Every structure is written in C-alpha cells, then in structure tokens.
Amino acid sequence: MFKCLSSDDNRQECILSGILSVNGKKVLHMERNSYYGGESASITPLDELYKRFNIPEHPPESMGRNRDWNVDLIPKFLMANGQLVKMLLYTEVTRYLDFKVVEGSYVYKGGKIYKVPSTEAEAMASKLMALLEKNRFRKFLAFVAAFDESDPKTCKDVEPSRTTMRDIYQMFELGQDVIDFTGHALALHLTDEYLDQPCQETINRIKLYSESLSRYGKSPYLYPLYGLGELPQGFARYLCVYLLFVVARCKQVICEPSYAPDHVRKLGQVVRVICILSHPIINTENANSCQIIIPQNQVNRNSDIYVCMISFAHNVAAQGKYVAIASTTVETKDPAKEVQPALDLLEPIDQKFLSVCDIYEPSDLGEESQIFISRSYDATTHFETTCQDIKDIYKRVMGVEFDFEEVKRKKNDTFGEEDK
C-alpha cells in the first residue's frame, strides 16, 4: 500500500513528492496527460502551442525549426539562493537538470525600464533615483545587510515583530518610487499590504534577493535549460516509477485543484500573454533573458504586472528567437488590456497567445479527508510563493514544519557553478 498518491500534473506535487520520498514516504505518481506539468507544462513542438491556443494556421517558416521550441505555459524563475534551489539540492534532483543564470532584473518607472539596484554600488550608479535619494537608499541597504534581529546593536531601535515596513521607509526618508521598486522588485511582494505589517519578513526578502544576486552577479535568478517541464521530468526520473495502468490504495492523496473541484474555492483569475519575439527587449542591454516587474502604483493598479523573457540561449526557442510572457492578476472585465503596459515594452511581437486562468485554493486542508490540494499558480514570475505552498502542504501531510536547517543529506553545494 502506498502512503501517498500524487498527481504529477503540477510542479508543486512533483517537488513535494520528492521531498516526501526522501523522508520515508512511499510515493506513487499519477499523470493523466501525455506530457509533464499539466497547466504549467512546457509545450513542444511549436505547432502544438498553436493548436493549444486554437490558432488554425501553422507556424510560419520565420519561426525556425518546429522542434526547437519548448514554451512554458506558466514560466517562473528560481531564486539562486531561494527555497526551491534548496529543495532541489535536498532531493538530489539537480543531477538531472542544467541551469543558466538569468541575465538581468529590471523595474518599470514612468514608461521606461531600469536595472534593479540591490547593492550600495548599484544604487549610486542607478538612474532610478536622484542623488539625494541614492544616498538615502544606500544607507537603507546597508541597514538591511547588517540587520540581525538577535543582535540589538544592528536594529537601531527597530522592533522586528512590531515596527512596520512603512515605518522603516519613513526612517530613511525614501520616496514613493524607491518604495515601489524596493517592495515589489527586491522584496517581491505582490501588493502593498506588506507596508503595514512587521518589517522582519520584508527585510529577509531583500536579503535573499541580495544574497542570490551576489552568487552569480548578473541577476538573482536561474532558469533550467529546455524549460520548466524539466523539473517534473527530473522528479519522475528520480522516483523511477513508470506505470500505464494501476489500481492503487493509499492513505493520503496530493493533487492540484482540478482533481478535487469540491474541495477548493476560487480566488480570482490570472491573465497571461505568451509573446514570440525576434529581438531582445529594449533597454535590457540585449539580454537573452530577464525579468521585468511593473509595480502596481506605476500603472494605477492594485496588483503588479510581470514579464519574464527567455530565449534560444536556454534551448526553448529557435535560433535568434525570444519568448516573453506578461502576466498579472485580473482586476477588470478586460484582462487583455490589463497587461498592455507590459506588451508595449515588447513590441514588435511576432505572435501572441493569450490565456485567462482561474486561481483556486483548498477549502479543505486535508485533516479529515487526507486529500491535500495545492494552490493555483499566481501571476508572479518567480518560485518563492510556490515554495511557500509546498512547505504548507508538507506541514499538513507530515504534521511538522519543513526545516532546511535539519536536512541531513546535505551535499557539497555546487549547484550551477558552471554558469558563474
């Protein structure tokens, strides 16, 4: 009898299955599609992407070889020093994966994009801020880098569990534009709700960004060659279970929302537009990959707009081609119009594929049913919120927190060294 039965349709379930198997669970993967990843799959070849979005014509010859394309339906980058990298190291799935460093991280201001400054030196050189603002931001970054809640000397009378992030910004006299890119492009908050919450989490998020950036220098993000479909495929190889048909009995089931529609509730929607380009994005120094965050206040919204771009350099597109995906949380009855500020940055666009997906969360936490359901993917272009969901499900399944510090199977951390 299996202790855990997992659908292989989403990356959360695959990653969680690997973690559970390392921790002694017998796990059986079930996959209802002919490809890995479900709604978050990497689609190949290119004509399959056209079919999926009901585009009747075939890809033109200008798109290059059909088989050279691996297009993520829901793309996300990995933070180099983040939770997912640690999970991959923990489960040893890194042996099946190759990664490249994303070449740049940018933020939108006044209709243009600028490189995100996250060090004192970058802050002083940045065109995002005036000279006096640069000085204040430099001091803020120095404060964050030194901050240690266990050492009162570093806190400067700040109480980590009580002082809000709004108070911290006021302490350093930072203006709204700086607050926008700090909270949304460094700390990666989805909305401005964090401003009136205790500052500790945001400070830790900014530290994570800086630590991840310092690891490789170009940006804090990594991306797997051949697309994110390699993640669930890597876990399938790791677990080495291949079955055509099986009747299984188990004590627990882990699945994504579509498997248990009576146990979830709808939270909203996400609009995504996949764009095929024949050029890098302007003002990114001709980067072959990058992330752009458009903070909500810059476009009078309640939610950020995200852009992630990868290319032929990652074996996901034909030579000379780029794939950029714009996404945001739907707030109006015209989702396509909501991502237009991002699409304006990408012109000219060879081909667009638009989708609007419902977002679900579990209404049943699994305590009685023993059915543990993941959350739908949000609009962000990084895995940090997804990893929080994985840790939440792990706690519900195992009854204890997943603690990286207690991992016994630590190996020499050589993850991605070839990409330095």
Automatic annotation (TrEMBL):
UniProt xrefs under SUPFAM superfamilies: FAD/NAD(P)-binding domain
Protein name as catalogued: Rab GDP dissociation inhibitor
Compartment(s): Cytoplasm; Golgi apparatus, trans-Golgi network
Swiss-Prot/TrEMBL GO biological process terms: protein transport; small GTPase-mediated signal transduction; vesicle-mediated transport
Organism name: Eptatretus burgeri
Family: Belongs to the Rab GDI family.
GO cellular component: Golgi apparatus
Taxonomy, superkingdom: Eukaryota
